[in-house]
Amino acid sequence: MSDTDCLFCRIVAGEIPSDVVHRTELSVAFRDVNPQAPVHVLVVPRRHIDDAAAIGPGDAEVLADMFVAARQVAEAEGIAERGYRLLFNLGEDASNSVPHLHLHVVGGRRLAWPPG
Ligand code: DGP
User: Fold this and answer.
1) Fewest Cβ atoms nearer than 10 Å: which of 34, 47, 80, 107?
2) Residue pair 18/30 in contact by the 8 Å Cβ criterion
3) Positions marked catalytic
4) Which residue's alpha carbon is nearest to atom 23 within ligand 1?
């Protein structure tokens, strides 16, 4: 998929507005438009990657950046101490709806396990 067709590439480029809470050289984190918990932030790589199944050895640096960004978001949002969930949805059964890799950072309430 080309950048111009990709919703999250367009959010990263600032072409579509979003509530950005964290930026690094490699990733951007913004609030999910349909939050499932008091804190629900998506960490996305600036470079387009389709999904978690498309990750390869060359993506180590960007993945590390995304996980560090997720921790920093959790700390800034005040959920780091009580705990939170990091989640990649993948494919139809997991309701993956946006084909640009995104790490969900979800917390601020007790989260059910297993998820529905
Ligand atoms: P997933 O189901 O894992 O593909 O999650 C995609 C998430 O993206 C979903 O929770 C809603 C969110 N989302 C979809 N469109 C937009 C948008 O235009 N802006 C923002 N901030 N979030 C969006």
Assistant:
1) 34
2) yes
3) 102
4) 33
Alpha-carbon distance of 94 to 72, in angstroms, equals 26
Rounded Cα distance between 7 and 99, Å, is 8
Nearest partner of 21 among 56, 59, 55, 72, judged by Cα: 72
Ligand 1 atom nearest the C-alpha of 19 is 21
Contact between 17 and 28 under an 8 Å Cβ cutoff? The reply is no
Neighbour count for residue 11 (Cβ, 10 Å): 20
Ligand 1: does its nearest atom lie under 6 Å from the Cβ of 37?
Answer: no
CA of 82 to the centre of ligand 1 (A): 25
What value does the mean pLDDT of the chain take? 96
Per-residue pLDDT of 30-86, as tens digits, reads 999 999 999 999 999 999 999 999 999 999 999 999 999 999 999 999 999 999 999
Pocket of ligand 1 contains residue 94 by CB under 6 Å = no
**Distance from the CA of 35 to the center of ligand 1, in angstroms?**
9
